[in-house]
Amino acid sequence: MKCVGMSWIFSEEWLWVVVIALAAILVLPLVIVWVILSLPDYMKLVATILIVIGWGFAAGYKDWIVAKRREDERNIPAEA
Question: What is the model's pTM?
Fold first, then answer.
């Protein structure tokens, strides 16, 4: 069956991958916040602390990767 006009785009796999990824980016944080808010008080505190620690760990790891990449770029000898 031949698609007419722009209707062919709905049969493209990449479109649905992008749509699902964007929906997950929008919905997952809301679900996580909802789950945290439904926890008992002491678990809310633990979850918040773990999020802050994880966020700091991820930021530090990213900075380390960037610094290592810059160091490696400086150590590459120029090819003649």
Answer: 0.61
User: pLDDT per residue over 4-28, tens digit each?
Assistant: 667 777 788 888 899 999 999 999 9
N- to C-terminal Cα distance for the chain? 57
Instruction: Specify the number of domains making up the chain.
Output: 2
Residues 52 and 30 in one domain: no
d(CA 65, CA 7): 43
| Residue 76 structure tokens | 């590459």
Give the angle subtended at the CA of 58 by the CAs of 24 and 43, to the nearest 5°.
Answer: 70
For residue 72, the number of C-alpha atoms closer than 13 Å in the C-beta half-sphere is 6
Report the distance separating Cα 23 and Cα 25, nearest Å: 5
